[in-house]
Amino acid sequence: MLPDDVGYSGTARRVLEASVGLFAQRGYHGTSMRDIAQTVGLKAASIYEHFPSKAHILAAIGGIGYTIYRDRFRDVLAATQPDPPQQVRALVESAVQGVCLYPELTMVAATELRFLPPDLARPLDWSRAETSLELVGVIGRGVEEGTFQARNLAVLVTSILSMCLRVPYWFRPTAEYTVDDLARDYGDLALALLTAPAGD
User: Fold this and answer.
1) Is 157's pLDDT higher than 60?
2) How far apart are CA 135 and CA 65, in angstroms?
3) Half-sphere exposure of 3 (CA within 13 A, CB side)
4) Which is it for the CA torsion 52, 57, 58, 60, positive or negative?
5) CB–CB of 27/112 below 8 Å?
6) Which end of the chain is more exposed for a tag (fewer CB within 10 A), N or C?
C-alpha cells in the first residue's frame, strides 16, 4: 500500500494505509473518520492523536505519493545518459512501473487532492511542479536539439504524465502482458507523441 520508508510508523502508518484504500474506493468525501477508525480498529477520537483532521491525512498521502515519483524521476535522470529520447523513455517507463507498484496511492494522489484546503494543497502543488519540471527540462532539450517537434511544452508534459496516471484505472497485468511490457509500450507512445510531425 505504501513504501517501507515514508516517515510514518505504527498507528499513524496504519491510518494512512487504511485511508489510501478507502479514499481510492469511496473517494475523499465518501469516507468518514469513523470509516477510517473502524478499518484500523480504533475509536475515531484516537486518530486525532496522529492527524488533526481528515484533510491532514489526505495531505500526508499526497506528500508520500509526490515524493515517490519525484525521487524516482531524479534517480532515473541520474542513471541515464543525457540523451532526451533515452531519458524520456526511462522516465515514462519508471512512471508506469511506479503507478503499477502503488496503484491506489496513485489514484488518490491523482484525483482526491483537489479537495484539500489551500494551506495544505500549496506544498503539494510545489512537489508536483518539481516532478513535472524534470520532464519539461528533458523535453525542452530535445526540442532545442531538433530531436522532438516544437509544440506547447505544457500540453506535452501534461499529456504524457496524465496517460501514466490513468494506468491503475484500467490495467491488470497478466503473464502474457506484464507491467514491463506496458512500460515499454508507453515509452514508445511518448516518443511517438514527441516526434510526430506537426500538422499544417
Assistant:
1) yes
2) 17
3) 17
4) positive
5) yes
6) C
Whether this model's pTM surpasses 0.85? yes
> 48 by DSSP, 3-state: which?
coil
What backbone torsions phi and psi does residue 47 show, to the nearest 5 degrees?
Answer: -65, -35
Q: Other CB atoms closer than 10 Å to residue 117's CB: what's the count?
A: 10
Q: What is the pLDDT of residue 130?
A: 84
Task: Quote the pLDDT of residue 101.
Answer: 94
Residue position matching grid coordinates 509500450: 185
DSSP H helical segments within the chain, as ranges?
10-26, 33-40, 44-47, 54-79, 84-101, 103-111, 118-145, 153-165, 167-170, 179-195
Residues 6+ apart with CB under 8 A from 197: 149
Around 122, how many Cα atoms within 13 Å sit in the side-chain half-sphere? 2
Domains within the chain, CATH numbers bracketed:
54-195 (1.10.357.10)
> What is the amino acid identity at position 127?
S
**Which of 102, 115, 96, 107 lies closest to 57, judged by CA?**
115
